[in-house]
Every structure is written in structure tokens, then in C-alpha cells.
Write a structure and sequence with these properties.
Length: 225
Amino acid sequence: MQWRKVLVVDDEPDMLEILGYNLRQEGYEPLLASDGKEALALAKTHQPATILLDIMMPGMDGIELCKRLRAMPETRDSFIVFLTARSEEYVEMAGFEAGADDFLVKPIRPRALLSRLKALERRLTTPQRIEAGPLRLEPDEYAVYKNNQPIPLSKKEFELLATLMSRPYKYFSREMLLERIWGPDTYVIPRTVDVHIRKIREKIGSEYIETLKGVGYRFVPEAVV
């Protein structure tokens, strides 16, 4: 994948033109698609690092397209950001369930979007390897292993787990995790954290992350011994 390649998928020609222009002005390489079929073809050929995806589209909607992109080896690790005029909670939850990393509500402000893209490039810090029992987190590989077997995590799931593992026993509130992982200016509801925690537990085991109602989540190393 190349960081400068950004796939934009929207059935509104004006939106494609505006976003494409602004991305080019900042040195990005925009790939523009007006429907799901075209988007899949471009994604397979160019392997974009970031995908800006409208939800409400005729034919294949954004949710279904996101699922297909996550299933493709060329884009399973790409950042997928939904662009939508719909802000209902169930739409956002469906987007994250499908594998989205971020969520922006239209009308999109180009300067704010470009700021978000730049933040995506520098979001992941480079801490040392973290080990806890059979779990091993390798930041340079963006990977987690359990008993030396790779555990498939999305980027947000990885960053969330890395945050918890970096400070064992410390409780992180939803608000703290939202700000650290999604950023202070992102429109994301607190339940988003719960969805990602649930997915992490399903993949690595529920005993690794403790919940204290009304407080937050923490990673407990001895739980994995």
C-alpha cells in the first residue's frame, strides 16, 4: 500500500470533483469511483492506503462495499473512512461492524478532511514490543500474536489493544480511548469503543480485558498466564 493513494467512492459527481481536487493539491493521488463495482476494481489494482467511502449509494451500498474491501487482501489493512449525510446511531454502528475505521458526517469540509488524513499517517506510535503471557504485540509489524499465531485485528482494534497493553492495570474511560484512538475532533459515539472491545475479546479471549462499570477498560497481564 502507498500512503499517497486515496480511493474516494461517492455517487455524487460534485463530491468526487471537490475531494479529488483538494487531495491532488495536497500531493495525494486520488482514485475516484462512482459505484461499488468500479471501487473494487480500482482497489484491487492500486491498493490504496486510505478509502473514503459514501454509505448511501445505489446498487452496492457502502456497508456491503466495506465488507468486500475488508475481505480483499489488497485492502484488508487500509484505513476506511465513511462519508455520509446520515448520522443515526445504527448507521454508525453498522459501519464499524462492517470494518470501518472512522466516520465523517457530510457536508465534508476539505481542510478538516485533509487534516484527518495527515493524522492517520502519524497516528501509530512506535513503542517497543509488548509481551504478556502468550500474547505478543509487534508495533513495527502492526501485528498481534497469541502462542506465536497471528491474530487478525483491524487498525483501530490494534491501536486500542496497544493502548491498553502499554499501561497494564490502568483503567481507560471510553472518552480517553475515543480521544487517543479516534482523535478529539472525530464524530464517534462512546459505544464505538464497546464494539471494538467486543471484537478484540472475540479474537484474543475475553479474559484479557476487564471492564469496570462506569469507569472503563483495562488490560490485566496475569489473566493470560
